[in-house]
Amino acid sequence: MTLSVKQLNRLALLTLAPFIGLILWLVTANMSISLPSESFPKQLPETAVIPAQTESLLTQLDQAKQTALHTASSIKRTIKLYKATNESMSHIVKTVSSQAGRPALVYDRRITRAIGSPARSVQSDKITAQLFNIHAQNFSGYALKVKLKSDKSMQMVLGKDKYGGAETTLAAARRYQAVAGINAGGFADQNGKRYPLSTTVLNGKYLSGFEPTHKDLFFVGLNKDLKLIGGKFNDKSQLDQQQPKFGASFVPVLMKNGIPQSIPAKWQSSPTRAPRTVVANYKDNQLLFLVIDGYNESGGSGATLKEIQILLARFGAIDGYNLDGGGSSSLVFNGQVVNHPSDGVLRPVPTNFLFFK
Q1: pLDDT tens-digit map of 298-316
Q2: Which of 19-33, 113-127, 233-247, 333-347 is the least confident region?
Q3: 3-state DSSP call for residue 329?
Q4: In what residue span(s) does the Phosphodiester glycosidase domain sit (predicted)?
Q5: From the CB of residue 284, how many other CB atoms can be counted at a distance below 10 Å?
Q6: Calpha distance 119→273 (Å, rounded)
Q7: Euclidean distance between CA atoms 346 and 329, whole angstroms
Q8: How distant, in Å, are the alpha carbons of 12, 18, 24, 286 from that of 9?
Q9: In the 8-state DSSP scheme, what is residue 45?
Q10: Which 3 state secondary structure label does DSSP give 173?
């Protein structure tokens, strides 16, 4: 069966009529349609979008920051404490050092005061040398107190640097540019030459071998530690143990360990009084040299050895040794002859002690 256009239109109208009518009803009824809120997703807070792991990490970072701040504060306190402790320790060290040196200073002042006031002095990193005038009842002379600070501050030299040679203390001091000089050991003349008496050591070597002590002879010198060594040695090994650096021989020993030694009868009157040269030491290893003036060797001027012993005890010396005296006694200080040689001029001698600044 064939439908016409008009019939089709009628059919469509009949089919759609219910829907059209429903729409018209809704419009005329002024109704609105709304969906429940559950139909839409809720909006989350901004912080809620951060994963839980991130939040935990931030918490850990905050804790680490607090720990770092605490550690930094602790380090600052530690550094401050260290600086304060270091300053305190430095102060303590300085105090201890000054206190440690105080007994030596007090001792030096005491022994210096016993001698008197220095007339002249030399001070350097090598040596401290103080020259004193001595005025006793029966004689006058000089004292030279020496503190050696270097192994180059003192040495013994031969006359003209030759075994058998001789020269004055002044000539030796000038030749070596020494600040001071004193005659050393005894000597014996032979064939126009002047040889050191008995055992003599120079630069750690025996010049003519070791000679055992006999009669009243002794050896005196310095060892490698700049300490005065001396006495009677019957065997070379005894002296070797002392490690002598240099030294000479003469007679007699005057004092040992602060005790005056018995003076042989011969040396009490041959001569009774005379110019003297003496070497001694103190317990702090300072050296003391005495040079006593005398205008002749007849025994009418100068000092007796007993008087020298009294002087050494008064000055606080420990050991004392009589060196060559008479016309040999010589003391040079800063290029000048200090004493009054009994010969009227300085005598050439084979050994001299020289001091350097």
Answers
A1: 567 999 999 999 999 999 9
A2: 19-33
A3: coil
A4: 177-356
A5: 12
A6: 26
A7: 8
A8: 5, 15, 21, 148
A9: P
A10: helix
Mean pLDDT computed over 38-62: 61
Q: Cβ contacts of residue 116 below 8 Å, gap of 6+?
A: 132, 133, 134
- Residue length of the chain: 357
The angle formed by the CA atoms of residues 103, 315 and 227, to the nearest 5 degrees, is 65
DSSP-assigned letter for residue 73: H
Q: Are 133 and 120 in contact, with CB atoms under 8 Å apart?
A: no
Q: How far apart are CA 167 and CA 178, in angstroms?
A: 15
What pLDDT does 329 receive? Answer: 98
- In angstroms, rounded to a whole number, what is the distance separating the alpha carbons of residues 264 and 53? 107
CA angle 157, 158, 160 (to 5 degrees): 115
Q: Give the Cα separation of 145 and 131 in Å (integer).
A: 7
Residue 9 — pLDDT band, cuts 50, 70, 90? low
Confidence class for position 48, pLDDT limits 50, 70, 90: very low
Q: Which residues contact 102 (CB under 8 A, 6 or more apart)?
A: none
CA 116 to chain centre: 29
Do strands 244-250 and 253-256 pair parallel, antiparallel, or not at all (unpaired)? unpaired
Contact between 181 and 352 under an 8 Å Cβ cutoff? The reply is yes
Q: How many CA atoms lie within 13 A of 94 on its CB side?
A: 6
Separation between Cα atoms, residue 219 and residue 229, nearest integer Å:
8
Q: For residue 341, is pLDDT > 90?
A: yes
**DSSP 8-state class, residue 142:** E
The runs of H, that is alpha helices, within the chain are 5-29, 52-115, 169-176, 236-240, 265-269, 305-314
Q: Answer yes or no: is pLDDT of 63 > 70.
A: yes
Mean pLDDT along residues 218-225: 98
Distance CA 83, CA 89 (A): 10
Token representation of residue 291: 């040079």
| Domain range annotation of the chain | 116-355
At residue 33, the pLDDT reads: 47
How far is C-alpha 224 from the geometric centre of its chain's CA atoms?
A: 18
More confident residue, 270 or 314: 314
Percent of the chain with pLDDT over 90: 68
